[in-house]
């Protein structure tokens, strides 16, 4: 099993992001383009009438992204589940065996995968570039 911050895991993550985002309105060629698509969709899905993203008290943007990714309508996993569940996707990214993958629940795998996309997949950088202009 790879560590979430290893170069190989990040490389696998970025490849998965590009693969799983293909077929959307825009077809990304790089992980950066996929991150911008995800960040844009997250902003569009969670912003209120004022154009600001609604956060729960003491909630940060990463937590809001994870919450959105785990199950709000039009979330990233609505598209990803076409390819498999969060446990399977995380297992592919981290090159886990079945035994290693079994220690995570579906929800834990979704949280970990969202965190990896936010931190290592470039979604946070894309988010702050896009949201700054809103």
Structure description:
This protein is an all-alpha fold. The chain has one domain. The protein has helices at residues 7-21, 31-46, 61-71, 76-80, 86-94, 98-102, 106-119, 123-132. The longest helix has 16 residues, at 31-46.
| Element order: H for helix, E for strand | HHHHHHHH
**Overall mean confidence score, pLDDT:** 85
| Distinct helical segment count | 8
Describe the largest sheet: none
- Contiguous runs where pLDDT drops below 50 for at least 5 residues: none
Binned, the helix content reads 55-70%
Cα-atom radius of gyration:
14 Å
Chart the SSEs and their pairings.
Elements: H1 7-21, H2 31-46, H3 61-71, H4 76-80, H5 86-94, H6 98-102, H7 106-119, H8 123-132
Give a brief outline of the structure.
The N and C termini lie far apart (40 Å). This protein has helices at 7-21, 31-46, 61-71, 76-80, 86-94, 98-102, 106-119, 123-132.
Give the tags.
single chain; 134 residues; mainly alpha; 63% helix; globular
């Amino acid at each position: 099993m790879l560590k979430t911050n290893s170069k190989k895991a990040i490389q696998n993550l970025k490849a998965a992001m590009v693969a799983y985002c293909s077929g959307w309105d825009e077809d990304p060629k790089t992980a950066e383009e996929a991150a911008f698509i995800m960040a844009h969709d997250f902003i569009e899905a969670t912003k209120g009438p004022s154009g600001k993203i609604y956060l729960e008290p003491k909630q940060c943007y990463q937590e809001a992204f994870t919450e959105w990714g785990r199950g709000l309508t039009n979330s990233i996993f609505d598209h990803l589940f076409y390819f498999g569940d969060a446990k399977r996707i995380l297992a592919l990214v981290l090159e886990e065996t079945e035994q290693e993958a079994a220690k995570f629940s579906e929800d834990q795998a979704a949280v970990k995968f969202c965190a990896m996309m936010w931190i290592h997949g470039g979604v946070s950088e894309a988010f702050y570039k896009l949201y700054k202009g809103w």
